[in-house]
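Long-time lurker, first post. I've been practising inverse folding by hand and with some scripts of my own, and I keep getting stuck on stretches where the structure tokens seem ambiguous. Below is the full token string for one chain I'm working on. Before anyone asks, I'm not after the true native sequence, just a reasonable design that respects the backbone. If someone could post their per-position residues I'd love to compare against what I wrote down in my notebook.
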């Protein structure tokens, strides 16, 4: 590829790359309509020439552009793109590249060019996707007619955690510290004390409509379906997060999948693919279900996770709060994958200062590049001479209401946990 790069014009010529004599001499087969080849080329561009201005992919038998959907991220300054003499059949393939701010585009020689009634319809369809386009197939385009004045807008900066009162903040922070101390301990039996006997739990993961036969995470498919003939490949699945058992929890159109959950609660499973939640029987506590155990397999980022507790959500009988953050899978198969999550708790008071969860909703997705870059950044330590008491993690706040840490002690605990790599339970010891 270095021979095909023009550094003076910042242009990469990948025309007819599968017939390159140097590659053929070395018995290297590069076919850009194969996903692995296209992704490899994009990664080379990102690693070596992210300043690329012009890219020629003509005469490569490309019939789809889905594998090029990351091109904007890999080459954000790209202005010229040549896709001529390929096999693109519809202009809708260009939707995968809509984020590019192209000034020149070549599409002649593709079957899609013959599907328009006239040139004006052709130009209109292409310009709908690339409004700043100046040249199409080597011809200057007329100036676009526009009556709208584009006003630059900036989104407000993201705020941190929000609590209606200091007392509410102390209650929630103490609850979360004790909850995740047990969660990360390897033995989650103590989590039973945190849940109401009629509690409901749900897990939601994103589902790719472009690839209906696999989850966007590439998780292993479910190995078993019960009571129907729906192929396993049509259901997205996170095998690390859900394990098969005798407890029916998921209902599709006539099919049932048997799953196990980590809490003694009525279990729900939600997948954004048109299926619905269905109440399942109470499940026994299982340390390896629902989410992978944190001890040795997952590292969460306790700070800066964001907690929001709206003023209207707190009453004498009900408390609703949201926890957002990231965690890292560090088992041998995940390769330190970073995930983002949002977790919504609905709890009722127990005793004088305890909480009992009646509804637990978790949404997990792939972390974006910004989140990954900021993940697990070591904060500056906060010096203090105050001792940190050793709390018991045998049960949740409902069974140990007397355990209280000051704000300064909580900060010390979080900082020490981050610096040492230990979870909160061992950091307190």
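-- Answer (accepted) --
I ran through it position by position. Result:
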């Amino acid at each position: 590829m270095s021979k095909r790069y023009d550094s003076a014009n910042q242009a990469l010529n990948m025309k007819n790359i599968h017939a390159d004599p140097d590659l053929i001499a070395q018995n290297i087969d590069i076919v850009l309509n194969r996903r692995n080849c296209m992704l490899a080329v994009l990664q080379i561009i990102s690693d070596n020439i992210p300043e690329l201005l012009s890219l020629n992919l003509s005469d490569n038998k490309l019939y789809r552009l889905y594998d090029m959907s990351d091109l904007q991220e890999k080459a954000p300054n790209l202005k010229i793109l040549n896709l001529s003499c390929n096999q693109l059949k519809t202009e809708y393939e260009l939707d995968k590249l809509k984020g590019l701010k192209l000034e020149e585009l070549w599409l002649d020689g593709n079957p899609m060019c013959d599907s328009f009634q006239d040139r004006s319809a052709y130009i209109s369809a292409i310009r709908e996707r690339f409004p700043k386009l100046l040249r199409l197939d080597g011809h200057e385009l007329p100036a676009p007619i526009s009556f709208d004045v584009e006003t630059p807008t900036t989104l407000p900066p993201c705020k941190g955690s929000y609590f209606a009162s200091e007392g509410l903040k102390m209650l929630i922070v103490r609850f979360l510290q004790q909850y995740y101390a047990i969660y990360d301990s390897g033995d989650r039996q103590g989590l039973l004390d945190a849940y109401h006997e009629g509690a409901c739990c749900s897990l939601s993961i994103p589902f790719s409509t472009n690839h209906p036969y696999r989850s966007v995470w590439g998780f292993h498919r479910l190995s078993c379906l019960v009571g129907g003939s729906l192929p396993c490949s049509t259901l997205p699945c996170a095998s690390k997060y859900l394990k098969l058992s005798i407890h029916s929890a998921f209902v599709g159109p006539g099919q049932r999948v048997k799953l196990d959950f980590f809490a003694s609660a009525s279990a729900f499973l939600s997948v954004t693919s048109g299926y619905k939640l269905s109440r399942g029987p109470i499940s026994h506590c299982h340390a390896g279900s629902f989410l992978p155990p944190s001890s040795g397999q997952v590292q969460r980022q306790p700070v800066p996770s964001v907690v929001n507790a709206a003023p209207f959500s707190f009453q004498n009988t009900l408390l609703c709060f949201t926890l957002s953050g990231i965690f890292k899978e560090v088992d041998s198969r995940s390769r330190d994958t970073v995930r983002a999550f949002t977790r919504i708790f609905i709890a009722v008071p127990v005793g004088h200062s305890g909480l009992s969860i009646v509804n637990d909703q978790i949404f997990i997705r792939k972390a974006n590049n910004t989140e990954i870059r900021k993940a697990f950044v070591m904060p500056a330590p906060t010096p203090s001479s105050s001792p940190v008491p050793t709390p018991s993690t045998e049960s949740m706040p409902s069974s140990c209401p007397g355990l209280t840490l000051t704000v300064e002690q909580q900060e010390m605990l979080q900082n020490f946990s981050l610096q040492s790599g230990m979870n909160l339970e061992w950091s307190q010891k």
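A couple of notes from the structure itself: The helical segments are 21-25, 35-48, 71-74, 119-129, 166-183, 369-374, 407-420, 424-428. The radius of gyration is 27 Å. Happy to go over any region you disagree with.
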